[in-house]
Specification:
The protein has 75 residues and is an all-alpha fold. 76% of the residues lie in helices and 0% in strands. It starts with a helix and ends with a helix.
């Protein structure tokens, strides 16, 4: 696995950790009913990962970010 891919995956892991710790006390039902919260978390994850990459995102990484947004109803 290339260094760029590892860094990309590490950023995803870091943002996932942030989301998990900052959402303590939020129930799944509360999260699913709160469109603003859902959008904020998806945006946080995708924008932080794309900003942290020194090189432009690969087409695979772009597709992943787009699919995550679609899955969460952001697009």
């Amino acid at each position: 696995m290339s260094l760029q891919v590892r860094e990309f995956l590490q950023h995803i892991l870091d943002e996932t950790h942030y989301i998990m710790t900052s959402s303590e006390g939020v129930t799944k039902a509360d999260f699913l009913e709160n469109e603003t919260l859902k959008r904020a978390y998806v945006k946080e994850l995708t924008s932080e990962v794309s900003r942290s990459s020194e090189k432009p995102l690969s087409s695979c990484q772009k597709r992943y970010a787009k699919s995550m947004k679609k899955r969460n109803g952001v697009v």
